[in-house]
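Field reference: sequence -> structure
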Amino acid sequence: MLHHNADAAALGLFQAAKESPGVYVFGANADQSSLAPDRVPGSAVIDLPRAFLLVAAEVKEGRFTPKVEAFGLSSGVVRYEPNPALDSLVPAALKARVKAAADSIAAGTLIAAPRPTSMQADSPQRHRAHRGHREQPDNVLSLLSSVSSVSSSSLW
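Structure field:
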């Protein structure tokens, strides 16, 4: 079982898995089951349009504050998408445990392994202000400019 986080750079990994019996790869960032239908049990999917809409809703409601946003399972931005073609390979008891874990993570009752400090949304390393230099929020301005380029009527 392999998992990558390389988008298109992982195409070689999917090809190698197709050529290697018993090797499986989880997709990342999108449903990648079509890249190796017999070798991808599922994918971790990031729903960027949903992330944009969540931030746009904060702006529209006047609740937005510049920050690094870390979306998780509870927001619906991140989800696991199983490959129906390989559904029979995963025992029902394991599916139930994975669903229970995902539900508990989303509810905040199960804490997933913490990220290294440098990757935390509120990390001092990510928000280091320099004397005489105004701190800029990571990616928020580019996110908002992307959202603002879409007409408000198509968002709501």
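Note: The mean pLDDT is 80.
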